Amino acid sequence: MKLDVRDASFRYPTGVLALDGVSLMIGSGEAVALIGENGAGKTTLAKLLNGLLRPTAGSVLLDERDTRQHTPAQLSRFVGFVFQNPDDQLFARTVREEVAFGPRNQRLADAEVQARVDRALDEVELRAAADRHPYDLTSPERKLVALAAALAMQTPALILDEPTIGQDASGVARLGALVDRLHAEGRTLITITHDLDFCLEHFERVVVLAGGKILADGPGTDVLRRVDLLQQAQVEPPELVQLALGLGWDTMVRTPEGFADAWAEQRGAAERTRQDDHRAGRPAGRPQPED
Ligand SMILES: Nc1ncnc2c1ncn2[C@@H]1O[C@H](COP(=O)(O)OP(=O)(O)OP(=O)(O)O)[C@@H](O)[C@H]1O
Ligand SMILES: [Mg+2]
């Protein structure tokens, strides 16, 4: 699913101009992270992308559908949305009912609804909680219920607003693996996140918002190493980027494994130079005379 934002602005009824002439084209199957300081307009942009809000100027097209010509209910079949705060989203009395709501609304056969619910609950590892009340779960678990509800809709595009907040390290790793799998399946994925380590590792493209405008848009490995730009957007570079910059590397790695490989390669190269110097009878680590 292609998402095309054309010179869109959004002004809340209070008068706040939350988005100011934003143009953004997200191709089918892309994984894009929206980053930026609090109040930058990230959530407003996400709500424009799934038709919960319509632009007050400009337009938003989902494939060729103009969001102004469709209801949010119609568009919810195409773009799933997991809210920042799950309590804005959950309303059913059991986890199973919550996750079944969307597929049932799509008028799928009962067996298909149940199969989707089981699969979605497996994906977030909450099958054992299927018959519990969502409010008996912890807040991070409720967020996973909201995620499962979105997964069960099997929409071609999915927006996750701050998915890692409140999750422990294993929860974040599980979310990362899920994002990678959905991406490999060809879904269009958009996340809003303050967790730039997560963003670098799992989202190839990064869009930086500030004051309702796009400040930068490009590969995460480029955008997330622009320290001045990130400072302007009030976000800290990811830890891997800080390490790589501190070591003077000019290529960026996206994962701890990538970092370890690059590090091993550098050490190997240094060792080979040392051995060559040794064979040539040059003293190790000393500059050679000019002649
Ligand atoms: N329902 C609303 N009514 C009025 N103003 C709003 C509303 N929601 C957001 N705003 C304002 O619009 C601007 C953009 O808010 P938005 O929630 O899109 O930012 P954000 O980048 O998602 O921030 P955060 O990181 O805090 O979630 C802010 O100035 C905010 O105060
Ligand atoms: Mg927000």
What does this protein structure show overall?
This protein is of the alpha/beta class. The protein has a domain at 3-78 and 155-279: P-loop containing nucleotide triphosphate hydrolases (Rossmann fold, 3-Layer(aba) Sandwich), CATH 3.40.50.300. It has 11 helices and 10 strands. The chain has helices at residues 42-49, 72-75, 95-105, 110-123, 139-152, 169-184, 196-202, 220-223, 227-232, 239-246, 256-279; strands at 3-11, 17-26, 31-35, 57-62, 65-66, 79-82, 157-161, 188-192, 205-210, 213-219. Strands 6-7-8-3-9-10 form a 6-stranded mixed sheet, sandwiched between helices. A 4-stranded antiparallel sheet has the order 2-1-4-5. A hairpin with a 2-residue loop joins strand 4 and strand 5. Helix 3 (95-105) packs parallel to helix 5 and helix 4 packs across helix 5 (139-152). The longest helix is centred in the C-terminal third of the chain and has 24 residues, at 256-279. The radius of gyration is 23 Å and the shape is globular. The N and C termini lie far apart (63 Å). The relative contact order is 0.14. The model has no long low-confidence stretch (mean pLDDT 93). The structure holds adenosine-5'-triphosphate and magnesium ion. Magnesium ion binds next to helix 1. Adenosine-5'-triphosphate (ATP) is lined by residues 12, 14, 16, 18, 36, 38-44.
